[in-house]
DNA sequence: TAGGCCATCTGGTCCT
DNA sequence: AGGACCAGATGGCCTA
């Protein structure tokens, strides 16, 4: 969608982040309202003729036939529509900000090298998936050692990956996510200079889980 | 300049 | 009725 020329996106974000749910005035003409609809939204005339799309048509008809709701002028309906849309946009923006905050928190507990390297969203999720699995395996191996079952512990190459992938295939550890997309963390991190994927946890010495072990 | 990533808007759907 | 969630579209920014 094309933002209104007079609306700098960054300014808009800042303003509306501070006021997640601003009381949208009916007189307020927002950039959203003035922006042209994207081609995919031009499904017939439904979306343009009534707030909320085609489903609102029945409500409108009911009102005209003497329903409970008071008939509103087109202008009033248009204003109400814009107001609702603006509030919905604010909520959606806020929701995505919360999601990104959670993602940042997740990044904060994941080991990366260099430390300030920022993982993308998909990398963060896949890396976290792998990291949790790595820690789980490490704990399992540690348990074996603790009870003197070290000799019974399967060798590195016998430990199955979370998805049952081929043993020792670190890249497959990121499945099922990696199966859906071409960008497995191992692969993607290898593609990105400076970022390195963790080594196979199955080969970590029990109890010696250190950051360096994942490099 | 192409491609990747991201933020944002938007309409649809489901739920309370 | 209104909010949450979702997916598609779009444009900006950045990097190779």
Describe it.
This protein is mainly α. Helices cover 47% and strands 0% of the residues. It contains 8 helices and no strands. Helix 6 crosses helix 8. It binds a DNA duplex (16 and 16 nucleotides) through residues 1-3, 9, 12-13, 32, 35, 37-41, 43, 47, 52-53, 55, 84-85, 87-89, 91-93, 95-97, 100, 120-122.
Architecture blueprint of SSEs:
Elements (H helix, E strand, L loop, with lengths): L8 H10 L12 H4 L11 H4 L5 H10 L9 H36 L11 H26 L30 H4 L4 H7 L24
Helix pairs in contact: 6-8
The chain binds a DNA duplex (16 and 16 nucleotides) through helix 1 and helix 5.
Output the keywords:
215 residues, mainly alpha, 8 helices, 47% helix, disordered N terminus, DNA-binding
As a percent range, the share of strand residues is under 5%
Please give the count of helices. 8
Distance between the termini: 42 Å
Overall geometry comes to: elongated
Helix content: 40-55%
**CATH domain topology of the domain at 74-148:** MYOD Basic-Helix-Loop-Helix Domain, subunit B
State the CATH architecture of the domain at 74-148.
Irregular
Low-confidence stretches: 1-69, 150-191, 197-215
Structural class: mainly alpha
Oligomer: single chain
Mean pLDDT across every amino acid position: 55
- Main beta sheet: strand number and arrangement? none
> What sequence of helices (H) and strands (E) makes up the elements?
HHHHHHHH
Number of strands: 0
**Radius of gyration in whole Å, from Cα?**
27 Å
CATH class of the domain at 74-148: Few Secondary Structures
Domain BHLH: 83-135
Organism: Balaenoptera musculus
GO molecular function, one term: DNA-binding transcription repressor activity, RNA polymerase II-specific
Biased composition (Basic residues): 57-70, 79-88
């Amino acid at each position: 969608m094309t933002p209104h020329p007079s609306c700098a996106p960054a300014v808009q974000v800042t303003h509306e982040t501070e006021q997640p749910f601003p009381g949208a005035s009916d007189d307020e003409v927002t950039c959203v309202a003035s922006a042209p609809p994207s081609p995919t939204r031009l499904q017939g005339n439904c979306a343009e003729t009534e707030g909320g799309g085609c489903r609102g048509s029945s409500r409108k008809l009911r009102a005209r036939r003497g329903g409970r709701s008071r008939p509103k002028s087109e202008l009033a309906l248009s204003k109400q529509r814009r107001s609702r849309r603006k509030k919905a946009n604010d909520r959606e923006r806020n929701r995505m900000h919360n999601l990104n905050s959670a993602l940042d928190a997740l990044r904060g507990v994941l080991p990366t090298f260099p430390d300030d390297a920022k993982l993308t969203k998909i990398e963060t999720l896949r890396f976290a998936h792998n990291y949790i699995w790595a820690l789980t395996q490490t704990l399992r191996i540690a348990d074996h050692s603790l009870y003197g079952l070290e000799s019974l512990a399967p060798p590195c190459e016998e430990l199955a990956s979370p998805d049952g992938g081929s043993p020792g295939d670190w890249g497959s550890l990121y499945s099922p996510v990696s199966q859906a997309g071409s960008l497995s963390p191992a692969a993607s991190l290898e593609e990105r200079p400076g970022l390195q994927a963790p080594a196979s946890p199955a080969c970590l010495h029990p109890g010696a889980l250190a950051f360096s072990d994942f490099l």
